[in-house]
Design brief:
By secondary structure, this protein is α/β, with parallel strands linked by helices. It has twelve helices and eight strands.
């Protein structure tokens, strides 16, 4: 009888041990909005399954109702990510309906300590995205330490990309700060205020976001500002429009007031930093360069 060498026995033991201890399944991350899903995907780098619920810039997030498949995804998720601040209340309901001792539920509004009634479009605050990304990273590292170095490396890259967005904001603040712009909905307001722009027509914009009819006085004031060239540009939400908004955009174009489109949800195939930079570039191109 031949006795196999000790090294061969050890190798066979390792193979059996490996077969008995399969690698843990990839974490499943369910994000309410695709901007958070893309950030999570960038950090995970293929080591997690990402499901983004709101992922079509053509859909109106204000009237969204989740399908049963979304509820099942949340119930089986390792991590959920929501905006909070009243933007995606359906996500909070799904999380509450399927409590889990092992799932990590991340809410951006809680991380930035958003006040009640605050602007819910938190991804237009790069700081909010950075805080959310940091929490995603720490959660993935804790759950999957075998890929910790990769998660941290990807987070470092993302941090550098968001730094580029902040640099573009600072450049616009230096060259265009103080200019007046009109808005048709408060999607872009956090970014506009970070640039130092003087945002007009806020009451009209709030009515549009809430789905209520703007007051006649607000509409008249908006029209007068456009025809009188009292604003340097109009920023509108291309994802959600109404006849009242379309009419004002038409007046702006006739008056040769630049019109800048932004969206609530990230376009397919984009990255967070690329999306923000593209919209900032569009704004920079629309706003006049001050004469020194």
């Amino acid at each position: 009888m031949l006795i196999p060498p000790q090294s061969s026995v050890f190798s066979a033991f390792c193979l059996l041990l490996g077969a008995a201890s399969p690698a843990p399944p990839r974490p499943v991350i369910v994000a309410a909005e695709n901007v958070y899903g893309q950030v999570a995907a960038e950090i995970a780098g293929g080591n997690a399954e990402i499901i983004s619920v709101l992922n079509n810039p053509a859909q109106d997030p204000h009237v969204f109702e989740p399908a049963p498949s979304v509820a099942r995804a949340v119930a089986h998720a390792s991590i959920t990510i929501a905006d909070g601040a009243g933007y995606d209340p359906w996500m909070a309901r799904l999380v509450a309906a399927s409590p889990s001792a092992t799932r990590q539920d991340i809410v951006a509004a809680e991380l930035v300590q958003a006040a009640p009634g605050a602007n819910p479009h938190l991804w237009y605050q790069p700081r909010a995205v950075m805080l959310t990304a940091t929490r995603i990273t720490s959660t993935l590292v804790a759950r999957d330490p075998a890929h910790a170095a990769a998660y941290i490396g990807h987070m470092t890259t993302l941090q550098r990309e968001i730094g580029g967005v902040l640099g573009a904001v600072a450049a616009l603040h230096a060259s265009r700060g103080g200019m007046k712009i009109a808005i048709t909905e408060p999607v872009f307001t956090p970014m506009a205020e970070a640039i130092g722009l003087d945002v007009q027509e806020k009451t009209f914009a709030q009515s549009v976001m809430n789905g209520t009819e703007p007051r006649a006085s607000d509409v008249a004031g908006f029209e007068a500002d456009l025809r009188g060239h009292k604003v340097a540009a109009v920023v509108y939400n291309a994802q959600v429009t109404s006849p009242a908004v379309e009419r004002l955009l038409g007046i702006a174009r006739v008056a040769h007031v630049p019109v800048v489109a932004v969206t609530e949800l990230m376009p397919p195939g984009a990255t967070y930093a690329g999306w923000m930079r593209q919209q900032l570039d569009g704004l920079a191109a629309a706003l006049p360069i001050p004469v020194k």
